[in-house]
Amino acid sequence: MTNLAVEAEAEELGFDARRLSRIDRRMARYVDEGLLPGWLTVVARHGRVAHLSSYGHRDLEAGLGVEVDTLWRIYSMTKPITSLAAMMLFEEGEFELTDPIHRWLPEFAEPRVFVKGSALRPVTEPATEPIRVWHLLTHTAGLTYGFHHAHPVDGIYRAAGFEWSTPQGKDLAACSEAWAELPLLFQPGTEWNYSVATDVLGRLVEVVSGMPLDRFFAERIFGPLGMTETSFHVDGDAVDRLAALYVPDPLTRRAKRNDTFGEAIKKKPACLQGGAGLVGTAADYHRFTQLLLRGGELDGTRLLSPRTVRLMTRNHLPGDVDLEQFGRPLFAEIPFNGFGFGLGFSVLRDPAKAKTLSSEGEFAWGGAASTAFWVDPAEGLTVLFFTQLMPSSTYPLRQQLRQLVYQALV
After folding, report:
1. 3-state secondary structure 204-266
2. Dihedral (C-alpha) 94, 106, 205, 316: value to the nearest 10 degrees?
3. What is the number of other CB atoms lying within 10 angstroms of the CB of residue 162?
4. CA–CA separation, 261 vs 204, rounded Å?
5. Global pTM?
6. Distance between alpha carbon 229 and the CA centroid of its chain, in Å?
7. N or C of the chain: less Cβ packing under 10 Å?
8. pLDDT tens-digit profile of 137-175?
9. Architecture of domain 84-209 in CATH?
10. Beta pairing partners, 298
């Protein structure tokens, strides 16, 4: 188990310690008001932890507090890990970013695009452009999520069993084949829509590498990085460290336990979702962010070249526009104004437009249970936040955390 602890005085790393303590006071209010069960936050600069704090409970009903080794469902914070896996194979020459994915996933040979109609009676036309690898990495493939509830195709996904999870018993190969049969929202490459694209990318990793996704992660990423507590399910004694999952009560807004969703992580899933499936510790994800900050290398282990990390963390939206201009006005794990999208990460293009203290070039993502991370190369900064409240759009935790971290940087 990787240890996580404060490694330097705040002042030594350019922070005002008293200002950093504002993080704890502000975030504690969410717990004291019953809105969050508990949380853990990690602020590091130049690879050293300056601030590590937690508050509240990992399990309110059992009275168990948040600990440094608490296990958290990271949901969509799985996506950057899957993107890293794909780019490792890219570096090995296994594919080009412009390659059509049907070379490896023949089910996507003839995608069709929704033109008009309803979920029950869609009218479609053939795609004029194949889905390419970079479309999966950037969510521009035309795929979607059933939980969006914004378009007839979202309804088609729900009818096929894809809303917040995947149909029982279907593995990733079967899910990929099912997604390929559903219409696309738009012609590939013409818009941005948060989607199952990273799950399809995970299937591409499986086919190209000849390994199931969990084995690729374990052997090629988690083992080498010492991320020994990140996996697709929790069993044995580790269950005692798992945080419970909560949703806001519709009447009181107080955090209310949701075991219907929460218990799923205790069983090995049929579908290894590269877009949402992982659970792990703060220490493990801290290792992952340090790898990214250092350009693909950590403690002598290099998984990517610095050039590849730089390519992944620049804006890939056509015309270098932001998501506000190119995306559909739907849910995603970050705001759209001022943010572009790279190969697996949001990328901050314009701090003034985004109304944030963060630096241009910051890259980030979050998870459905309100977890979040960002990496700021300009300041050598990495920040992690863990809690377990779905959905992540309930409170402005991420925006506030940015304010609280950057105002302490002096």
Report:
1. HHHHHHCCCHHHHHHHHHHHHHCCCCCECCCCHHHHHHECCCEEECCCCCCEEECHHHHHHHH
2. 80
3. 23
4. 27
5. 0.97
6. 17
7. C
8. 999 999 999 999 999 999 999 999 999 899 999 999 999
9. 3-Layer(aba) Sandwich (3.40)
10. 301
Residues of the chain with CATH 3.40.710.10: 84-209
Give the number of C-alpha atoms closer than 13 A to the C-alpha of residue 113, restricted to the C-beta side. 17
Structure confidence by residue, pLDDT tens digits, 297-345: 999 999 999 999 999 999 999 999 999 998 776 677 888 899 999 999 9
Average pLDDT over residues 98-110: 98
Tokens of residue 134, six digits: 């970079």
What 3-state class would DSSP assign to 338? coil
pLDDT of residue 11: 97
CA-CA distance, 311 to 295, in Å (whole number)?
A: 11
The dihedrals phi and psi of 74, each to the nearest 5 degrees, come to: -100, -5
Q: Take residue 393 and report the two structure tokens written for it.
A: 């759009």
Region 192-198: mean pLDDT is 97
